[in-house]
Amino acid sequence: MANVKRDMFKWLYGALTGFCAIFFLSLLSFFSSDAEVSTFLVISITCFAACLPIFAACTSAHISMIEDDISDKTALKAVENESGNRITFAGLVLFCVGFSSLIFSLNAVAGFVFVWLSLYMVIELSRFRYHYLKIKVSEEGNQPNVNFKSVLPFYTDVNVKYKGHKRIP
After folding, report:
1. Which of 7, 30, 54, 82 can bridge 91 by disulfide, Cβ–Cβ 3.0-4.6 Å?
2. How many Å apart are CA 70 and CA 2, to the nearest integer?
3. pTM, whole model, 2 decimals?
4. Confidence check: pLDDT of 153 > 60
């Protein structure tokens, strides 16, 4: 994991933390205490409340790795362990559910369109990634070991083998 990638994760988690914080600030400015709140808005509030400390902790972890100038190998081991994967997955699922619930709270039709198009785009982008990985492997003169399931987001056992690939233990 290059230092650039650690910077990218720092900014990504920082942006997600900021989104959660701005959600609450905008919610406070638009709603009075006696306003009727929909179930979808309650789900959204709960999910973003859970995401805020998760993403803030991830941002802090990436900032500390950069400031401590740890090696790429150490950073990769620290981030890609079972606990790190669970935390990241939980944060992203909560964020997706919270954002979808926010749109559903505004309009049910818009919520269905958002969820349907989001799922469609995950599948289409996975197909796109599958094809460019096949091209990459074929350009290097190796037999592709890429299947469609391995390029789906959040799939943990991704094994794309090509000449020169080294897996860090």
Report:
1. 54
2. 11
3. 0.70
4. no
Q: Are 114 and 103 in contact (CB under 8 A)?
A: yes
Residue type, 167: R
pLDDT digit string (tens) for 61-90? 888 888 888 777 777 777 777 888 888 889
Phi-psi bin for 153: left (phi > 0), alpha (psi -120 to 50), beta? Answer: beta
167 burial via Cβ count (<10 Å: 0-12, 13-18, 19+): exposed
Report DSSP state, residue 152. Answer: S
Per-residue tokens: 38: 């929909």
Position of tokens 């805020």?
52
What is the residue-wise DSSP string for 91-141? HHHHHHHHHHHHHHHH-HHHHHHHHHHHHHHHHHHHHHHHHHHHHHHHHTT
Among 16, 14, 12, 4, CA closest to 66: 4
Closest C-alpha to 122, from 143, 152, 100: 152
Distance CA 63, CA 56 (A): 11
Structure tokens at 129: 């990634």
Provide the percentage of residues in the chain whose pLDDT is more than 90. Answer: 19
